[in-house]
Design a protein that fits this description.
219 residues; alpha+beta; 6 helices; 4 strands; elongated; four-stranded antiparallel beta sheet
């Protein structure tokens, strides 16, 4: 049987090509929709497995953390009795074994904060310091003190800087300077945040290495 060739006009061919293009477009769209469905399904499956694992890990970390702090309570009490220093007056405690190869650091993170009276102390210190700015040497001192009085992102002075101010005030012997620093110190009202545990060991070269205890710390 002879094959009959169908001749299409230019208009018919254009319509046919447009039909094929539209069909291919729909096929690709459906393919992408199916990929998105598969992706969403994979994400759902992995999350449903991952979250329980992480919750279990979180509970284990919490339990170990509470246990370690509990185990060291008696040691902290003994340390306080031996030194005469209240254990709750320190932000951290470092314990090292006898051969100095293992170390545990227990502590709490604190956020610096001050009562409103801190402004009176700052004004008193600035007033005294500004009165000294007479030559290059005293101007350098003024700049140094002003740097110590600079505030962090939360608008507070770092407690470590106040300690430096205290030393400078004591060295100066000026009662006005000392009084201003005392007011700043008395206004200090830190907020205790989270407890932390850090652990270290000495490697073969005798260098202290931290044991990674956070998800971002472990390689």
């Amino acid at each position: 049987m002879a094959t009959e060739n169908v001749q299409m006009t230019a208009e018919e061919r254009a319509e046919f090509e447009a039909f094929k293009a539209e069909k291919e477009k729909k096929r690709r769209e459906e393919e992408r929709r199916e990929q998105r469905r598969q992706y969403a399904g994979m994400v759902d499956d992995e999350i449903s497995v991952t979250i329980p694992q992480l919750r279990e890990l979180s509970e284990q970390i919490k339990l170990v953390k509470e246990t370690i702090f509990g185990n060291f309570e008696a040691i902290l009490r003994m340390k306080s009795e031996m030194t005469g220093v209240a254990s709750d007056g320190q932000n951290s405690h470092t314990f090292t074994n006898s051969d100095s190869t293992l170390r545990v650091i227990l502590g709490v993170n604190t956020i610096d904060g001050y009562r409103d009276t801190v402004e009176d102390g700052i004004a008193m210190v600035k007033g005294y310091i500004e009165s000294l700015a007479k030559d290059d040497a005293t101007k350098a001192l003024v700049n140094a003190v002003f740097r110590l009085l600079s505030r962090d992102g939360q608008g507070n002075i770092k407690a470590s800087r106040v300690l430096q101010l205290r030393r400078m005030a004591e060295d100066s012997g000026d009662e006005r300077f000392l009084e201003g620093v005392r007011i700043i110190e008395e206004a200090y009202q830190p907020t205790v945040s989270k407890k932390f545990i850090r652990a270290q060991y000495k490697d073969d070269k005798g260098a202290w290495r931290y044991i990674p205890l956070g998800m971002t710390d472990v390689d």
